[in-house]
Design goal:
Layout (H helix, E strand, L loop, with lengths): L5 H5 L4 E17 L2 E7 L7 E6 L5 H4 L8 E10 L7 E12 L15 H5 L9 H23 L3 E2 L5 E2 L11 E2 L9 E2 L2 E2 L10 E3 L4 H11 L1 E9 L12 E10 L3 H22 L1 H11 L3 H10 L3 E4 H10 L16 H11 L4 E7 L15 E9 L3 E8 L4 H10 L8 H8 L5 E7 H9 L20
Parallel strand pairs: 3-5, 6-12, 14-15
Antiparallel strand pairs: 1-2, 1-4, 2-3, 4-5, 7-11, 8-11, 9-10, 12-13, 13-18, 15-16, 16-17, 17-18
Helix pairs in contact: 4-6, 4-7, 4-13, 6-8
4-amino-1,4-dioxobutan-2-aminium adenosine-5'-monophosphate binds next to strand 13, strand 17, strand 18 and helix 13.
């Protein structure tokens, strides 16, 4: 079996030379002794129309088994299609059903299904148009991310999945252990982690940032692109328990440089995906979020608004909107606030900087006012925060104080403090939530619909 992909076949010229194509039947209909199969192999958003003459030898017997969902191999000739929406169609010479899909049980019978229904059949939903397009756009974005950093000389580094440091200090680690849960070994009445697999308490990483800092303070500009895990009890359309994150980290860089890279990065990958996935993006523009193509094109052309947290609180205070949570200095920005700023006030991406230290992670550089930190969030319409980043605290003593203030155990971060003891340098970085980026680009409303097999609180099917 060595048939060309449908994407290739769809761009071929009509010819009497037979070709063989493989794919899954999307729809079938019969009329006047002919059977029309739409077949698709996931290589393109468009399907290939196969025309079968039911009076021809051998075709009438096999065709009834080629129902919706079946996998088929068709040999035929490409002819100019009289129908609209396709350049060529395949006139079948022979048909082989490879795997049947019994109509009484195959779940994807209708032309359109709700996303909620499809979430329950995550193993079959990649065969729908929307999920096919989504997976190809996701792939395009991933390639664009690597292209951006590789073109700029960043080194892709691989930080650990299993870790013994809580990078965000927020206590959201999934624990990794081989201790017998029904009979935990105790020492002085507490769990004896010395007898655990690693000899100490370990978990799945929430972020590769701390390790990326060690690498940036040796290689200058690095980035990670890998999975992150958070046991946060957030049952929202923007949170997953397992998601992918892109984290650049740059030595000899401050907050302004960090924001410049973040803005250039988003614009680069938007342009990349608009250029390379035009047909898939058209699907989202047509069916999911009308106008998204024009919006993204405008984002690429327009400088991002940059304001401080204090200015954001000011703007929110002036707003007539009635928020569920009041926006006052010291409180974290809620997603309703982020939406108001990006959708109503500025109508586009906004970078907010200099948040109060109490609502941000311990590693962010303290400003001279002693109250705010050199952090930044990139907020976008519909989603709110898509990037979180900062200049890092480069002073060992200040960092030690912040670790203590945050209620963390300084001994767990001694290696991290070493980075400030030996050849410390200003450095900065940020984290982009990859699934939120996919949501932003495609307009998909629920984050569980932009990753093949979502894991969220209370749900980990497959
Ligand atoms: O703002 P966060 O928590 O920042 C960090 O993890 C830093 N260590 C990044 C850095 O400076 N290197 O997370 C970064 C981004 C968020 O802006 C969001 O887009 C995404 O990661 N994110 C999530 N995406 C999906 N589900 C979740 N539960 C997420 N938590 C964060
Ligand atoms: Mg954040």
């Amino acid at each position: 079996m060595n048939s060309p992909r449908l994407k290739t076949v769809l761009s071929m010229q009509p010819s009497p030379e037979p070709v063989t194509v493989c794919g899954w039947v999307r729809t079938r209909r019969e009329s006047k002794g002919l059977c029309f199969l739409e077949i698709n192999d996931g290589s393109a958003v468009e399907s290939l129309q196969v025309v079968i003459d039911l009076r021809a030898d051998g075709l009438a017997e096999e065709t009834p088994r080629a129902g919706t969902g079946a996998s088929v191999e068709v040999r035929g000739t490409l002819a100019a299609s009289p129908g609209t929406g396709q350049a060529v169609e395949l006139q079948a010479l022979s048909l082989r059903v490879i795997g049947e899909a019994p109509p009484e049980s195959y779940p994807l019978q209708k032309k359109r299904h709700s996303f909620e229904f499809l979430r329950g059949i995550a193993h079959l939903r990649p065969r729908t148009n929307t999920f096919g397009a989504l997976m190809r756009v996701r792939n395009g974005l991933a390639a664009g991310i690597h292209a951006f950093f590789q073109e700029r000389g960043f080194v892709w580094v691989h930080t650990p999945i299993i870790t013994t440091s809580d990078a965000e200090g927020a206590g959201e680690l999934f624990q990794v252990t081989t201790l017998p849960l029904e009979r935990l070994p105790l020492a002085d009445g507490r769990i004896d982690y010395a007898r655990d697999f690693f000899g100490k308490r370990a978990g799945l990483t929430v972020s590769g940032q701390l390790e990326a800092e060690a690498l940036a303070l040796a290689l200058r500009d690095v980035y990670t692109f890998g999975p992150a895990f958070r046991a946060e009890n957030s049952n929202t359309s923007r949170h997953l328990a397992e998601f992918w994150m892109v984290e650049p980290e740059m030595a000899f860089c401050d907050l302004a440089g960090d924001m410049d890279v973040a803005e250039a990065f988003i614009k680069f990958i938007l342009r990349w995906v608009l250029d390379r996935c035009p047909l898939d993006m058209e699907l989202f523009d047509r069916w999911i979020e009308p106008g998204i193509l024009a919006t993204l094109r405008k984002v690429v052309e327009t400088p991002f608004v940059r304001i401080t947290y204090a200015e954001a609180i000011d703007a929110l205070g002036k707003a007539q909107a009635s928020f569920e949570y009041p926006a006052s200095w010291g409180a974290d920005l809620q997603s309703e606030h982020e939406k108001h700023l990006t959708e109503k006030v500025f109508q586009g991406p906004v970078i907010v900087t200099d948040y109060p230290k109490a609502i941000k992670a311990f590693y962010m550089k303290l400003n001279d006012d002693g109250k705010t930190v050199r952090g930044m969030d990139v907020l976008v319409p519909r989603l709110g925060e898509i990037i979180g980043g900062s200049e890092r605290e480069a002073d060992a003593e200040k960092l030690r104080a912040r670790i203590r203030e945050a209620g963390l155990d300084e001994r767990d971060y001694s290696w991290y403090l070493d980075l400030r003891r030996y050849g410390s340098a200003p450095h900065a970085g940020f984290g982009l939530g990859f699934e939120r980026l996919v949501q932003y680009v495609t307009g998909m409303a629920n984050i569980r619909d932009v990753i093949p097999f979502p894991r969220a609180v209370g749900s980990a099917e497959f």
